[in-house]
């Protein structure tokens, strides 16, 4: 395994095992469940919106390391952003997974998931939270 792959694995496992966002948001203004019945990934995303600003966000649920880490990384990225910017980042992430040209730096830790596109069975895992957020917004 290359050093880069090792680093990516460490980032994914850190988000999977120690996400500070894994909690129910008691004062959430929006809540949406996303699940993939084929693999068992099941998440609920909580948002606290103040107008168009995402003041806080969290998630609960279970699933594979990719789905859970992707959810945590997404929340890191969208907290404090307005709805329009969050939707733009969601589209950037989806484009990255579909191997389109994107500015990876904008995606923070989530850019480590770009290799998921080489594993079609894992694409839905990586996209679950992002598609769920798209539905909420």
TrEMBL record:
A UniProt-annotated Pfam family: NifU_N
The keyword Transferase is assigned to this record: yes
Alphabetically ordered keywords of this record: Transferase
SUPFAM superfamilies with a match to the protein in the record: SufE/NifU (SSF82649)
InterPro entries hit by this protein: NIF_FeS_clus_asmbl_NifU_N (IPR002871)
Boundaries of every NIF system FeS cluster assembly NifU N-terminal domain copy: 8-125
Protein family: Belongs to the NifU family.
Protein name: Zinc-dependent sulfurtransferase SufU
């Amino acid at each position: 395994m290359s050093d880069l792959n090792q680093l990516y694995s460490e980032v994914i496992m850190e988000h999977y095992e120690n996400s500070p966002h894994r909690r129910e948001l008691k004062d959430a203004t929006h809540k949406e469940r996303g699940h993939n019945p084929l693999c068992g990934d099941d998440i609920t995303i909580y948002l606290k919106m103040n107008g168009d600003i995402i003041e806080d966000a969290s998630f609960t649920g279970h699933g594979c390391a990719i789905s859970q880490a992707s959810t945590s990384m997404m929340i890191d990225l969208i907290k404090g952003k307005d709805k329009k910017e969050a939707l733009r980042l969601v589209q950037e992430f989806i484009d990255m997974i579909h191997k389109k040209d994107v500015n990876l730096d904008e995606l923070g830790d989530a850019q480590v998931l770009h290799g998921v596109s080489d594993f079609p069975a894992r694409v839905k895992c990586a996209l679950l939270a992002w598609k769920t957020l798209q539905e909420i917004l």
